[in-house]
Specification:
The complex is a heterodimer of chains A (114) and B (111). With 114 residues, chain A is an all-beta fold. Helix content of chain A is 0%, strand content 53%. In chain A, strand 4 and strand 5 form a beta hairpin. With 111 residues, chain B is an all-beta fold. Chain B is globular and about 40 Å long. The chains are: A mainly beta (114), B mainly beta (111).
């Protein structure tokens, strides 16, 4: 079956702009989590959505937001982009929140802020 | 979630077993040990997880000490494609799906 799909794979923005990233989870998965990966901070948890509700949130400013739709697809938005937002943004899905077993990660969206 | 400690890097020869250690001395009784790996520029990939008993799947074996304060991931016959960053994560089931990644260990498999 199809894996986690993230779009776009690569994008370039300038400071002050906003960006929206999309994640389509594996069919049947209802939990979607987002992570930011940078060389300096490593992989950091952004937030998790389950049944269209945010279930958990990491330590990121309010410029980072997300949502989940009724078909479990999720989007995250970063407003007023800063240079430090340049990162690989990863989405992971699982059948349900807090479940045992693996989370399935997508290939990520690589954002460059100039 | 409990913190884990891993050495920054290690290497092994192709075809040999790779034994990746992890310390999690503050793990609580209901926290699981998970291993993920990340090959360059790809998303993390699940390898294995366990609670108390040793676990084995088609990718690896997980050995957890009796006191659960440390564990070892074993790749029985390492190949060049196993070169990656390996993350040992301690996770509580039930509350949410959050994974807390550390710096991981970089495994380099040499020909």
């Amino acid at each position: 079956k199809a894996g986690v799909t993230q779009t776009p794979r690569y994008l370039i923005k300038t400071r002050g702009q906003q960006v929206t990233l999309s994640c389509s989870p594996i069919s049947g998965h209802r939990s979607v989590s987002w992570y930011q990966q940078t060389p300096g901070q490593g992989l950091q948890f952004l937030f998790e959505y389950f049944s269209e509700t945010q279930r958990n949130k990491g330590n990121f400013p309010g410029r980072f937001s997300g949502r989940q739709f009724s078909n479990s697809r999720s989007e995250m938005n970063v407003s007023t982009l800063e240079l430090g937002d340049s990162a690989l943004y990863l989405c992971a899905s699982s059948v349900t929140t807090g479940a045992t077993g693996e989370l399935f990660f997508g290939e990520g969206s690589r954002l460059t802020v100039l | 979630d409990a913190k884990t400690t891993q050495p920054p890097s290690m290497d092994c020869a192709e075809g040999r077993a790779a034994n990746l250690p992890c310390n999690h001395s503050t793990i609580s009784g209901n926290e699981y040990v998970y291993w993920y790996r990340q090959i360059h520029s790809q998303g993390p990939q699940y390898i294995i997880h366990g609670l108390k008993n040793n676990e084995t799947n088609e990718m690896a074996s997980l050995i957890i000490t009796e006191d659960r304060k440390s564990s070892t991931l074993i790749l029985p016959h390492a190949t060049l494609r196993d070169t990656a960053v390996y993350y040992c994560i301690v996770r509580l089931h039930g509350a949410n799906s959050k994974l807390t990644f550390g710096k991981g260990i970089t495994l380099s498999v040499r020909p």
